[in-house]
Amino acid sequence: MREQFDVVVSGGGIAGMTAAAAFGTQGYSVLCVDPTPPVMAESDAGSDLRSTAFLQPSVDILQKAGLWERFDAYAMPLQVMRIVDAGGEDPTPRVSHAFDAADISDQPFGWNLPNWLLKRECVARLAELPNVTFRPGIGTRRLTTRESAALIGLTDGSTVEARLLVAADGRNSPMRQALGIGVRTTRFGQKALAFAVTHPVPHENVSTEIHRSGGPFTFVPLPDRDGQPCSAIVWMETGPEVARLQSLAPADFEEEMNIRSCGLFGPLKLASRLTVWPIISQIAERFHAERTALMAEAAHVVPPIGAQGLNMSLADLSALIDLATPETLGTPAMLSAYNRRRYPDVAMRVTGVGMLNRASMIHSQPLRDARAKMLDMMYSAAPVRRTLMQMGIGVRS
What we know:
The protein is α+β, with helices and mostly antiparallel strands. The chain has 11 helices and 20 strands. Strands 5, 6, 12, 13, 14, 15, 16, 17 and 20 form a 9-stranded mixed sheet that branches. Strands 1, 2, 8, 9, 10, 11, 18 and 19 form an 8-stranded mixed sheet that branches. Strand 18 (288-289) and strand 19 (292-294) form a beta hairpin. Pfam families: FAD_binding_3.
């Protein structure tokens, strides 16, 4: 007999598991599947060494999913976001401005955690929920939708039925492709190196983004490691430059890394292996179809600037949870409302982050000089500075 669920989540990344936990905590029966089991230890091969900053509005949906109490003990607050322009002739800071969350809120901008730890805690939360079934190692490959339900074919040969299918299965989403929903993709010719470092100068809960060319070099605070301050690094560069950096001996890589970091936190020491991630922008033509909602990277992808990516995904989930009731789950009215609520905001952020990324990449010295002047102007105008901070974290004045 075919298994029936209220919700099937295709995708067991952080966004997908959070969706399963949120719907499960609301009392729905949930199946979550992913062809790749999550890697939940930093030292394991294939672990995700990136980090995620959960901005203020994301905490509410994490609480509804029963996850925030698990994350909170490990979270590093992000009180200040500092932007440094080092785009002069020499790789040294020439403009530096700190955007303090105290200007707009009595809370930090957000809280930072490593992705491998988030996956570990998500898996533990799903195991607590008797109405949630998590099947790592199994993916989705076929989809037929009807007015009353979605029929989802799994890679183990079985078919399950759901009132709502949540496609959270990545930028190459098989469920989106099965529905024939197209995407608009922008390629920047960039990749990102993600790794952890220790450094002698404390980060003091400040996230620091250093702009020169090729893309930002970003420090995100992590808990101390071996008695030393520790940060997650995302270093964005052109594809050929990332390949060159990857090929360097560790000592030579550290030398290049210390030049690019402008010495702001003293000599940096690698504290993890290097991982590489492609950089694109992407947005689906629409975020819904019959009995199906697209969320997270199945719906949208942005470069890792301003902590927008996973927070946009959690805003998707928050909208779905707000709109879902036992009576309306998966109905055309619910899904149309979801698309109307999310698409304009996502489209604006995909465009805006793409523009910021291109500005961070520029090599021309006159354009880099213009970028530094623009940063000065934005910071000097207090109303503009506050508005940009509110837009960035998704809160309103």
